Amino acid sequence: MPVNPDLSVIVVTHNGRERALATLRSALAATGPIQAEWIVVDSGSGDGTPDAIERELPLVRVVRCANRGFAAANNVGLRLACGRHLLLLNPDVDIARGSLAELVSAMDERPCVGLASVIQLCPEGDLQHSIRRFPSFLRDLGEALFAARWPVLATLQELETRAERYERELSVDWVVGAFLLARREAVEAVGPMDEGFFLYSEEVDWCYRFHRAGWDVRHLPLMTIVHHAGRRDRSDLMAELAHSRRRFALKHHGHLGSIPIRSALVLGHCVRITSLLCLAATGRPTAPRVRCEARALAVALGLSAPPSLRWRTASTG
Fold this sequence. Notes:
The chain is α/β, with parallel strands linked by helices and about 325 residues long. It folds into 2 domains: about 5-225, Spore Coat Polysaccharide Biosynthesis Protein SpsA, Chain A; about 235-315, no CATH class. The chain has helices spanning about 15-30, 50-55, 70-80, 100-110, 135-145, 185-190, 200-210, 235-255, 260-280, 285-300, 305-315; strands at about 5-15, 35-45, 60-65, 85-90, 95, 115-120, 130, 170, 175, 180-185, 215-225. The longest helix is centred in the C-terminal third of the chain and has 23 residues, at about 235-255. It is globular.
């Protein structure tokens, strides 16, 4: 393990043994001529993930902890890391082009950049829209009303869908957290991830805080990764997403200031439920998706507790 590494790579795992091993192999092969340390924080895997990593990859330091959420596990890694730069890497990523050394060099040449990400692709090769705009009433209203389907309203949503924007370097509001490269000094100034976000929105909150502390958040198209993102159409995940988005709005805009954003989020769930019920009238099987949206709606309204309350209780009980 290098004493003063250029880069610390932090991977949080929770089951998914083979996918996590593939991610680590890919990242190790793409390191390039820098000193790097490798840290895996395993959040209560039950499939032998940490043992398998230790057997195959002795260079990787594996830390075991209870499942207290994605942000909390990343913070464990951040506290242990010694690198000048810190990479939070999802365990479902393959590196398709570029090297970590190139990114470290780019960050060294851009001292104002506190946080950066790269081009993300779907497994099928399509672009993943990883550049996002901060939540606002108009953007969330646009998403509720399916702005993405109307080219003239393409910017009235959080997602940046214009492919040409991903081909060049640019400052952004926030980036999807599958790959987050942070400068140590910036993290020390901004602080760790907010562990109140069990899953989802932790990277939105972190990017927001980087901006408020005066650091630039940058899209650097020097590397391309393939992100094997899981589906969110499980009712517990959709409900947790609704909770995280609601919590972000309340945290940064207060109870009164967040009312328009929370109202737009609620409207989005209502519109989708209505659309699904209309499809059901034509004979299409939409009941499972309706139940998912209804559960998320209850959480968005504050009428139901998020799944993370049960998950946290289980991990501490």
